[in-house]
């Protein structure tokens, strides 16, 4: 069983764009970091108090590393998509190899009747819950102390 597909249906344009954007992001971020670090080194070597230039160089380095990180994440997503598409392609190839027998009757449906559920004898013979009542009178006890007011014990 051969599959007739054209070359254009096999090309995944968004995936190609993801690869290109990831490469551009990593290269652009690297160049931004390198140029910002060179600018910082020049400012430190000159010994001038050009704070706006220093802050711009530091910000450029930070933004460049963030762009590099975004490019690396793009690479990882592109690799995961390639693995996914490869697995889907392999699964489709294995499904295409399965041959369905034309003699199978798949149009017939077996109807199974279910018997009604009745309570069992065990459920009918279980005792019902009983409630406990509180006693109506409290037990009486002698609570007189065993010590005299002068501190001696009673005998």
Give a short overview.
By secondary structure, this protein is an all-alpha fold. It is built from four helices and no strands.
Structure in words:
By secondary structure, the chain is mainly alpha-helical. It has a domain at 13-96. It has four helices and no strands. It has helices spanning 7-10, 13-46, 51-96, 121-125. Helix 2 runs antiparallel to helix 3. The N and C termini lie far apart (111 Å). The model has no long low-confidence stretch (mean pLDDT 78).
Oligomer: single chain
> Helical segment tally?
4
* Helical residues, percent: 55-70%
Strand content: under 5%
Overall residue-averaged pLDDT value:
78
Q: What is the radius of gyration computed over CA atoms, rounded to a whole number of angstroms?
A: 42 Å
Q: Which structural class do the helices and strands define?
A: mainly alpha
What is the count of β-strands?
0
What characterizes the major β-sheet? Answer: none
Element order, helices and strands?
HHHH
Distance between the termini: 111 Å
Shape summary: flat
Low-confidence spans:
none
Quick tags:
single chain, 155 residues, mainly alpha, 4 helices, flat
